[in-house]
Amino acid sequence: MKTLFGIGFIILGIVSFFRYLSIFGIHSFPELVGALIGLGLFLFLPGILLIRSDNKNKSNTDEK
After folding, report:
1. Quick one: pLDDT band at residue 64, thresholds 50, 70, 90?
2. Judging by beta carbons within 10 Å of its beta carbon (0-12, 13-18, 19+), is residue 23 exposed, middle or buried?
3. N or C: which end of the chain has fewer CB within 10 A?
4. How far, in Å, are 4, 33, 61 from residue 1 at the CA level?
């Protein structure tokens, strides 16, 4: 289940980034970097951590 949420967060981040580019456009490089950092911290990072956590839980239950 965590993997599903993780993949969902990553897909949401990609869609949000392209929507941001199409609506506001790229006005400056710092603005683009800020958008990438914001999306990375609030969507990509939790998604990756959820996927990693679920994979660790699966490997721990396989060993028992």
Report:
1. low
2. exposed
3. C
4. 5, 31, 15
Pair 50, 5: CB distance under 8 Å = yes
pLDDT in tens, 18-48: 888 877 777 788 888 888 899 899 999 999 9
For every residue of the chain, DSSP letters joined together read: -HHHHHHHHHHHHHHHHHHHHHHH----HHHHHHHHHHHIIIIIHHHHHHHHHHHHHHHHHHH-
pTM: 0.78
